[in-house]
Amino acid sequence: MLLKLENIGKIYDSNGILTIGIRNVNLEFDFNEFVLIEGESGSGKSTLLNVVGANDTYEEGELYFNGSETSHYSANDWERYREQNISTVFQDFNIIENLTVSENIQLALFRIDDIKERKRIAKELIDKVGLTKQASQRCSKLSGGEKQRAVIARALAKDSPIILADEPTGNLDVKSSTEIAKLLKEVSSGKLVIVVTHNADFFKQYATRRVRMYDGKVSEDKLIEKPAEAAVKRENNSAHADKKQELKNTVWLGLLNYKSRPRFTVMMSFALAVCAIALFIVLNVFGETLIKPLKTTLDGVGIEGKVILSNAGALITEDELNGISESLGAGYSLWDRELSEFFVTIPESGDMLKAYTVTCLYAPYRYALEGAEAVLVMPVSAARDEQAIKDTFLRAGVGITSIRTEKTLSADGVYLYLGYDALANNGKKIQSIYNKMKIDGYETTVYTFRINDGLGSGEINLVNSDFWNVRNKTVVLSAKSNMLYTVIDDSGIEENAGGLIVEMNAADYDSVFSECAGSANQACLYFSSDKAAKAAIEGLPEGYMGMLSASKIYVQGAGEIFTANILYYLALILVGICLAVLISVIFMRSVKIYQTDFTVYRTLGISRRISSRSLNIQMALIFLPTLVLMPLVSLIAAVMPGSTMAFIGIGEYLFIEIMMLLIVEFVAFGFNKSIKGQSVRTGLRRGLK
């Protein structure tokens, strides 16, 4: 005997109110039977079918399958029971309407490893039920009769010994109902077919047995025709898929989920994109102001192989530096550390995007520059102001005649690399660009200085002055703060200049900008690498001390900064998690469109583990575009004129992507949790709402 129901009872509990679905049902079913279960609405027909198909539990009695009890079955046992033994045809079809006919049928073929073989079997079954032309059509486009045919083909694909049909003609016209009844009879050979119906007219000519239900009990069990003996007692002993096959099925189902609801996919992807971009902006806008470094390099820009040399507080003469440089094998040296790195601030003017602070550097191993050459390294976002920045130095008369440009996606600053000759001969002139001066207590900015031999000692002219009548006023220059100057003329105009120009005689000019190359507090040695530089430091003469310019030192108040940074990161993570939870709650309602789909998967014997993990795969696929989106968005942000955003760093990129992954997996987790423990009957009912 294939199935035996002994005193089966089903009791529903609705908010503490108990309702009897069926009570004391005793029935036996075997192969080759075509059984009709009839009765009025509410008589227990569908409840009986749900119990037999493991779409619902039973609370009383015992259900035997192939002579074995099932009351001890776990959830996994019932999944295996459905997978191996039950095929169901529903009144409401319960077909995945956003998939094609072929894909729906392939859902029932997970037992077969080869995808090509699945497609071949699906095609044969589609041909068998007369849907050849509709094979690649979405099921939402099918008529009611065509949908029911597709469901029957799907039931056949499982090759289960038991086919259960719940009101299979309830939503069909007479012609379609007749065809479906005939089709069920054609496929019943060697199987047990149980049809629940309130109208037996379409099936009575095929039935071998009729069971009538009334008030939850069997009121009549009539044998019409004795079924043929089963040639072989069927037992479905198909083994569970191994882990590799299970993974393949999970990925395949996740891909189906992903493509089956394109609107949901697009909407979710768009929401993720908005969240990712918002986080990127937050990290860029607030990151630099709120995240402070605990350590900083000895120089503002640490140059590879650069050693800062000191002599126990004494001055270092040029001769001493040359001797040390030769003995240690330094490739280059610079007698004054102050010339190795300094800043020139260029104010915003005309149609410039903003003001710039240009870091002037000497890095001979990076740029071997000669004479008056220079290299300007700047962000792509500042490209519009390239010529204005270059003109600032070229027109200032500070010995720079040629500047080539390199553009980067970094937004960490603008750099001007200079050669030794430019620094040794004109370093202080370059430093004086946009320097300060005071006139009777008022401060203004001087663009540059130049020689006018018509002036006497201590006399200056102002060109492009924005002061009114400052002749004979006393001036103090930041470039030479120990000297007082007197304004002789302030009426000069030079429209092509970059600002205020101070003219003085040659002697005064030389006194302001003489390089005093004899000695300096600190000097610089340059080696090909930090490794070579460290080795050289160990060989310094007694009394001398050297440190790599890239050496890290703690900033003042490092402890407080560390605490503030930790709080910022914690707040950022908390915001990210809250965002993930918020988005998941918003999309939880949307993701419930999969409620019926996932329940149908269970009726097809697809394990809960595969279906739940397939949602994780689907969400991961929705997440994947952000992996490309963030570099693209950051690239656009980095090249936008006037942008202060750099191309995204690896740390920021990983943080944003982890947050996005959290969002989609929160959605998957919430959905899987919401359907956990539901019976198939409950899941289908909720999915239809």
Key features?
alpha/beta, Rossmann fold, 30 strands
Word description of this protein:
Helices cover 40% and strands 24% of the residues. The strands form seven sheets. The chain has a seven-stranded mixed sheet with strand order 21-20-24-25-23-26-22. A six-stranded mixed sheet has the order 6-7-8-3-9-10, with helices on both faces. Strands 15-16-19-17-18 form a five-stranded mixed sheet. α15 runs parallel beside α19 and α16 (595-603) runs antiparallel to α20.
Report the sheet-strand fraction: 15-25%
Count up the domains: 3
Sheet having the most strands: 7 strands, mixed
**Broad shape:** rod-shaped
Note poorly predicted spans: 232-239
Question: What is the CATH topology classification name of the largest domain?
Answer: Rossmann fold
Mean pLDDT: 88
Distance between the termini: 39 Å
- By helix and strand content, what is the structural category? alpha/beta
CATH top level of the largest domain is Alpha Beta
Supply the CATH superfamily name of the largest domain.
P-loop containing nucleotide triphosphate hydrolases
Q: Count the helices. How many?
A: 20
Residue share in helix: 25-40%
Trace the largest sheet across and list its strands.
21-20-24-25-23-26-22
